[in-house]
């Protein structure tokens, strides 16, 4: 039986290789299966949990849509829309925030990482972010949610919220408890400058990530400058536990070439990093350059991107407004 897929990407600029290999690549495969119903959301309400420049946000919303399409998502076979235009997301988030427990949210590691030492100054939205994410997913009865490894904990929370709502209001199976779809390998791509940190949009150094809008020369340069260690390429997969940068680069290579980490290690065992880096850069350019060119082409036609969003908003609204009405009835409004 086909799956009901829902996933979101924040329009916070600098979409990168981690977003692509961890999530968007998976969206494309799921979208290519005609049995699946796919909804891909540009989660702009999530984006404003940290300060955004309004003009840039508007551009980033379009750029996220362009990235979906340039990566291979067919807008005719899926619903692509932006979250803020479907009021049920914000309404659902409020109702579910009365179901979720403080203790559950207090355990969320992403909030701790993003708020850093100065928690008092973080927005309330950043704290309750996972509840909005639960509303996003549950409004569409999604059965499966493709995400990168960093979102695993939020998805577990979404499952807990769905189960508690169903129990509290005695509506068995009313909210669909979704399954995460997290790739077994390479589900967390790390920074090119520090193998212990995830590749991130907000990292100050652009050299830490491959952006999906990077050009050939930028990609080659970033791989050349990517951090490694003084030893030759690892001989054995066990060495990777201690050699995080080598592990990350070999992981990226394996993901791009659809090979296992073990085979990639065998391929380059004992060679110089420079030889490996040349091959890695070539594979990256082959994958990213066409996407980058297509994003730029699509951004030249803002009307086309806006039409996709408008169409998506209409379709998403039809589904979400019915579900939120039922939720309101159940709650007693
Ligand atoms: N490094 C990563 N490796 C694998 N998957 C990743 N994802 C994000 N980074 C990696 C996955 O991409 C999807 C969309 O992510 P998002 O836009 O919701 O959030 P983000 O990229 O984590 O970006 P932020 O929060 O704007 O900024 P940073 O990156 O600075 O923290 C998700 O499925 C995510 O798992």
SSE inventory with pairings:
Blueprint (H helix, E strand, L loop, with lengths): L3 E6 L7 H16 L4 E6 L1 H4 L6 H18 L6 E5 L5 H10 L4 H5 L2 H7 L8 H15 L5 E3 L5 H17 L10 E3 L34 H10 L18 H14 L3 H8 L4 H27 L2 H30 L2
Parallel strand pairs: 1-2, 2-3, 4-5
Bound molecules: adenosine-5'-tetraphosphate.
The site of adenosine-5'-tetraphosphate has 19 residues, from α1.
Characteristic key phrases:
333 residues; mainly alpha; Rossmann fold; Tyrosyl-Transfer RNA Synthetase; 2 domains; 13 helices; 54% helix; globular; binds adenosine-5'-tetraphosphate
What do these coordinates show?
- By secondary structure, this protein is mostly helical.
- The chain has helices at residues 17-32, 44-47, 54-71, 88-97, 102-106, 109-115, 124-138, 152-168, 216-225, 244-257, 261-268, 273-299, 302-331; strands at 4-9, 37-42, 78-82, 144-146, 179-181.
- The chain folds into two domains: 4-186 and 302-331, Rossmann fold (3-Layer(aba) Sandwich); 206-297, Tyrosyl-Transfer RNA Synthetase (Orthogonal Bundle).
- It is globular and about 65 Å long.
- α4 (88-97) crosses α7 and α9 packs antiparallel against α12.
- Helix content is 54%, strand content 7%.
- It has 13 helices and five strands.
- β1 (4-9), α1 (17-32) and β2 form a beta-alpha-beta unit.
- The strands form two sheets. The chain has a three-stranded parallel sheet. A two-stranded parallel ribbon has the order 4-5.
- It binds adenosine-5'-tetraphosphate.
């Amino acid at each position: 039986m086909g799956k009901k897929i829902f996933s979101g990407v924040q329009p916070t600029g600098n979409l990168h290789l981690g977003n692509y290999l961890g999530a968007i690549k998976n969206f494309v495969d799921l979208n290519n299966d005609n049995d699946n119903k796919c909804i891909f959301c540009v989660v702009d309400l999530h984006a404003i949990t940290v300060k955004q420049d309004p003009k840039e946000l508007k551009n980033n919303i379009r750029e996220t849509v362009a990235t979906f399409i340039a990566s291979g998502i067919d807008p005719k076979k899926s619903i692509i829309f932006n979250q803020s235009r479907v009021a049920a997301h914000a309404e659902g988030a409020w109702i579910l925030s009365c179901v979720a427990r403080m203790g559950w949210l207090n355990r969320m590691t992403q909030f701790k990482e993003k708020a850093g030492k100065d928690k008092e100054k973080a927005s309330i939205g950043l704290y309750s972010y996972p509840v909005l994410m639960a509303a996003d997913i549950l409004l569409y009865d999604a059965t499966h949610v493709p995400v990168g490894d960093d979102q695993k904990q939020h998805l577990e929370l979404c499952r807990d919220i769905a189960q508690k709502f169903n129990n509290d209001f005695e509506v068995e199976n009313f909210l669909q408890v979704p399954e995460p779809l997290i790739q077994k390998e390479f589900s967390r791509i790390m920074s090119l400058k520090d193998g212990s940190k995830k590749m991130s949009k907000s990292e100050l150094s652009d050299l830490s990530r491959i952006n999906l809008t990077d050009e050939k020369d930028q990609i080659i340069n970033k791989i050349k400058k990517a951090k490694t260690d003084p030893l030759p390429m690892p001989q054995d997969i066990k060495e990777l536990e201690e050699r995080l940068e080598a592990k990350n680069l070999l992981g990226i290579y394996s993901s791009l070439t659809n090979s296992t980490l073990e085979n990639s290690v065998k391929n380059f065992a004992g060679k110089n990093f420079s030889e490996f880096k040349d091959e890695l850069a070539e594979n990256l350019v082959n994958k990213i350059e066409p996407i980058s060119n297509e994003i730029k082409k699509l951004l030249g036609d803002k009307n086309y991107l806006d039409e996709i969003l408008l169409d998506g908003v209409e379709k998403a609204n039809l589904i979400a407004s019915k579900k939120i009405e039922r939720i309101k009835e159940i709650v007693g409004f």
